[in-house]
Amino acid sequence: MTVAAAIDQMTPREIIRRTSQKSGQRRQLLSNLYFAVLTIALLVIFIPLYGVLSTIVVRGYHSLNWTFLTANPIPPTSATSPIGGVANAIDGTLEVTGIAVLLAVPLTILISVALFETRNRLARIVEQGIEIFVGMPAITFGLFIAAITVSVTHKFEAWYGSMALLFIVVPVATVNMIAAIRSVPQTLIEAGLGLGARPSRVMMRIILPTALPRILTGFFLSVSRALGETAPVLFVIGGVLVPSFNPRLPATTLPTQIYAYFGSQFESQVQACWGMALLLVIIVLFFNVLSRIFLARSKKANG
Amino acid sequence: MSITESPVAPKSGMTVGRERKLSTHSDTLYRGLIIVALAFFVLVGVYYFYSIIDQSIPGWKAAGFGFFTGTTWNLNAGQFGALPLIVTTLSTTLLAMLFAAPIGIGAALALVYLVPRRLQLLASSLVELLAIVPSVIYGAWGFIVLRPIMLYHVEPWLQRTTHNTWPFTGVPSGEGILLGGVVLATMCVPIVTAISRDVFEVVPRDLIEGAISLGATRGQVLRRVVLPSCRTGVLAALTLALGRALGETIALTFVLGGVSTVPKSLFSAGATMASEIASALGNGGALGDSVLFCSALVLIVIVGLVNYLSRTIIRRSQRKFQ
Amino acid sequence: MSLSSTEHTEYTTVSPNGQRMRLDDVSVAFAGRMAVRNVTFDVEPLKVTSMIGPSGSGKTTLLRAMNRMHDLTPSAKVSGSITIDGVDIFDKSIRLTDLRTRIGMVFQRPNPFPSMSIFENAVAGLRFIGVKDKKFLAESAERSLRAAALWDSVKDRLQNAAGTLSGGEQQRLCIARSLAVEPEVLLMDEPTASLDPIATAQIEELTQTLKQILTIVIVTHNMQQASRVSDNCAFLLMGDDMAGELIEFGETTKIFTNPNDPRTIDYIAGKFG
Hints:
Number of helices of chain B: 13
CATH architecture of chain C: 3-Layer(aba) Sandwich
CATH topology of chain B: MetI-like fold
Order of helices and strands of chain C: HEEEHEEHEHHHHHEHEHEEHH
Helix content of chain C: 25-40%
Number of strands of chain B: 2
Strand content of chain C: 15-25%
Strand order of the largest sheet of chain C: 5-4-1-2-10-9-3-8-7-6
Oligomer: heterotrimer
CATH class of chain B: Mainly Alpha
Radius of gyration of chain C: 18 Å
CATH architecture of chain B: Orthogonal Bundle
Radius of gyration of chain B: 23 Å
CATH superfamily of chain C: P-loop containing nucleotide triphosphate hydrolases
Number of strands of chain C: 10
Shape of chain B: globular
CATH class of chain C: Alpha Beta
Structural class of chain C: alpha/beta
Structural class of chain B: mainly alpha
Order of helices and strands of chain B: HHHEEHHHHHHHHHH
Helix content of chain B: over 70%
Largest sheet of chain C: 10 strands, mixed
CATH topology of chain C: Rossmann fold
Distance between the termini of chain B: 22 Å
Largest interface: A-B, 101 and 103 residues
């Protein structure tokens, strides 16, 4: 009897058992291979992670000292002349990002609450608009702000940069905040309304406090992103060598300073880039860790 | 939720939330504020698009359709052929996604289904660390650390092993499209991984056990059950990364070299639509600036189109499968 | 929907092959903590064996030991012996993927694969083991869907997504999916827990047909269900140290009418649980 004829006479169950046994070893091998590939993919990620972080730390850590943080930059004249510090960029970063956050908080709350409360066409358009803005290239926000400020006033001012950063901060924070307030249990809201509280009071006293940890998560996330942005502020804040402490004057931020110094012919300025990079990563990391703490807290609160 | 909260990822909470609002009676001030907020946002959004279009008009008049077909880009000389920028943008993005999609998705699968529980938080925190490094730092790192590696090792090796066939032709210079693609990929991978991981994490254990109980191997579970049931979420992750790659600016100004003609190989220097805006704004006079607004507008349209397509696909498949 | 006799006969053109399973001194521990202790009983071939008991008594844990589902949990440890047709399922020579095609499983909540069509769900197990023959797949799909009493209602929409089916239909699709790989034993873990009474009745009816071709073990916390569908019944209870123990095993009628152990009497009478 041929094999084919033998198979013809087998019941489906026999065929299935036979197929399963025959393919078993190969399938196991393929599965292991698949997992090996996944492992490699994960390990590959750690190469640039290690590369970037070690480069910043190794090249940057000896720059980080008191003078670096507090002194103003000195334009170098030779490869060995002192370059001072980056107090100007630290001040600029605080000013530009700080004002952006101060403006972003009320705006984000307003828009998120508005989207939570409205279900009409307008709200749908706005919600989709925000999602579109999350994905828009940051450089286009810089161009837009430049077109309506610098092109008109012919001056660079720190707060123009804040305006541009709003386009980074508000959409990300809003997407997070809407998700946060929509996750507040309906029963809580109904309890508030049932007690005769006005909608605005329910929002202020019940929904926002309940969703607060997740709202903060969104804010800190967006701030940590805004801190590192170069493109949106590049065209509108100009540059300074001394801290101005005045948002109506030009400013320099850590990213724009790195961008400006990196092409320098003076090695000392390129060196300073790594110091600023390390400083920047530390600041960004700080806000990111904050956001994670609040995220963990909100997860705990929600069980 | 993660560092790169996806705006397009399907969230069940969202749809439930749509049905929910506080009662609408009384509370005039509150209602008023809500309307003002929405209207304000629409105004800002419209103003943004209007400004970009308005500023680009002189540029369109000067460049015409040659913006898309012209092969010479020189703002100072009044040559506004943006094809070199477009080709560089698309090729670096394509390259970045070729690296980032498999690595990002693979790593996310590994994070969820392979890394032991107690190491998972550590491993995903490390991946997210990669996502928070500012783009200017990636540019600096790419130029200082990666460029020499590309120049002295990777590019000569590629040429040798391929016997100098396209796209590995030309003189290795370290910087250029290949380096740009690699740097972009590095920036996109954590986006893809973070969002995909969130998606994989919520795959019901039931589904996995269902497949296991039918005699599937662990690899088959991932390939035939987990991945297909996550395709909309993964697509959302890829879309966000793709948008980021198309619009990435600062890092690429460090590693692409510079531009005048259409790149001929992976080793050619170039500039993307976004990076050229950063490097050239203010250098080409009022007309040059306006042409850069044209570039921004095209970029916005491309990114918008990508988002729209991905949303349509996601919506369609949700309609089919839910 | 009722099961027409034709559906039944068509499936049984395949020779019945329900196997006996034997549990001998089986214990399951998670991270060193005992969840089920020293359970011994026989699962008779071509019969329905039910496991009842209050929650925490380890019914599901025990059921999942029977197709080595605990292999997925690194901290789980199963001791004692479980055999199918006299062969130890923990034997090194047994390949897990083969074992699971011989011992199928149906879960508490219907879990069809959402990305697959009804047809693809039905033949998913066959695809996993590498069956490629289109005709064979189509025949198997029909045979198993008929056996699960689903064929008539889905035969015109086999390409629809599985999510378009009702809960009861989804659960029957999951049963069909298990049947397609022609198992000898079917483990059912509270298969009607999430279903409405009508769908529940259909599944219960189905067990009575299916036991003519395979062996069924069903976990349920619904005592009426156990008495309706099962031939033999195992009653488990949580011991003092939170580990489940087998209190009594026997014919269902005996357990429900004349149990030996006073704790069984109390449970059946609804004094706790």
